Give the backbone structure.
Amino acid sequence: TSAVSGGKNILQWSASTNSWTAVDGGLVQISVGPDGLWGVNDSNTIYRRRSGIWEVVPGSAAAVAIGPAGDVWALGAGSVGGGHPVMKR
C-alpha cells in the first residue's frame, strides 16, 4: 500500500513469522506462476522474479497473468478497439 519507485511496495507472506515481509522493487500488478513471480510497474515494464532477482522481460504490458500450466498472458500497454491487445508468451 506504500508508494515506491515503480508503483506500490511488494510484500511476501511468511507463515513462519505470521507476517508480511517487504521484497525489493515496486509494481502496480503482480501474478504468481509455477516458475515464479511476474509483474508490471507503473511504466508498463514487465518483470519476472527468479532466484530473488527481478529480470526485465522484453515488451510492455498493462497487466500479466499466469495460467495453471505456466503460460504467461499479458494485456498490451497499447490500446485497440475495446481495450488492450492480448499477448501470450
